[in-house]
Amino acid sequence: EKGGYEHFMLKEIFEQPKSIHDTMRGRLLVDEGVIKMAGIWDHLERFKNANRIIIIACGTSWHAGLIGEYLIEEYARIPVEVEYASEFRYRNPIITDKDVVIAISQSGETADTMAALKLAKEKGAFIYGICNVVDSSIARITDAGSYTHAGPEIGVASTKAFTAQLTILTLIAFKLGKHNGNLGNAEFMSLIAELDAIPKRVEEVLSSTHEQIQQIAKDFISTTNFLYLGRGYNYPAALEGALKLKEISYIHAEGYPAAEMKHGPIALIDENMPIVIIAPKKGHYDKIVSNVQEIKARKGKIIAVVNKGDRQVSEMADYVIEIPETSECFSPIVASVPLQLLAYYIAVYRGANVDQPRNLAKSVTVE
Ligand code: M6R
């Protein structure tokens, strides 16, 4: 059932070209220039008239939500807030019937997310679900939703569900932007053509980085700390990269927006600190270059995720992982793949049980 892979996690990482494709199938109709999503279409007025969208989730799904904020605000120009479900439910938040609440959950059973949704519903908000498990509790309680078609995710560390969530959020942002006039037709057409090719880009990254990452991972088996940095859309991707490493390898890792480094974490940097930095061409590249210079000056070990043909960051980096160039909004999907592989191989080489990490459950049904 692991399809020849040693672990479900590796199988699921490699399934991503297909799971992203399956999530878009029937929804993204490039030739017709249409995104079909019944859940959005049937409630378009609710979305269009929303004062704001509040995204609630936990863990990896919360990271997807942060990227959703960037997507929806950039392309649909609707204000978005992203909250941990556990905080939202207990802090007496302001919710009105003009709010749209989107819950993101792979399992559809996360207790805090479910409770936060119930609260939002009581206050009259329109509640929307992005779940992977069909007919799960969250899918049932929501007014409408869009399933991620990632297929069953068995590994406790979420991988293919995350990239499927990003796919749905991208579709929602583009669809809303198209309908409310914030995303012009030409840009819409070029973005959806690019989105359609993302499964292929992910396939390329898997094959071009898989062996290299196994080699890189060997150098970090005894490391005790990691920093992950990114800016813009790749700041949440850095958080997600760090979460993957801590949950399965038990190495302490922190994700940060790269510019926040100088407000604290830079104090940690010395020759023993590996820093994974996501530095694609599109999206604050020059700023990232100066962050890398600051790390280099303090002798941090730099593992850089860059676009093919990159020079400036690559020249300073100790390890260079190349990903294909995409528009910034798609880069977290493509950049997450090598980070999943890196976490996976470091954990495997440390002898950890990657599919069933200690203390963790696949769905957290108690708060
Ligand atoms: O099923 P959900 O998406 O609601 O789960 C949320 C988190 O528990 C989950 O993403 C957790 O952080 C994963 N172990 C991450 O890999």
UniProtKB/TrEMBL annotation:
One of its GO terms (biological process) is amino sugar biosynthetic process. Its main location: cytoplasm. Its EC number is 2.6.1.16. One of its GO terms (cellular component) is cytosol. It is found in: Cytoplasm. The active site is at K362. It is an enzyme of class 2 (transferase). Residues 43-182, 216-357 form the SIS domain. One of its GO terms (molecular function) is carbohydrate derivative binding. Keywords: Aminotransferase, Cytoplasm, Glutamine amidotransferase, Repeat, Transferase. The keyword Cell cycle does not apply. The keyword Metal-binding does not apply. It catalyses: D-fructose 6-phosphate + L-glutamine = D-glucosamine 6-phosphate + L-glutamate. Homodimer. Catalyzes the first step in hexosamine metabolism, converting fructose-6P into glucosamine-6P using glutamine as a nitrogen source. This is Glutamine--fructose-6-phosphate aminotransferase [isomerizing]. It comes from Chryseobacterium lactis. The gene is glmS. The chain holds residues 251 to 617 of 617 of the full protein.
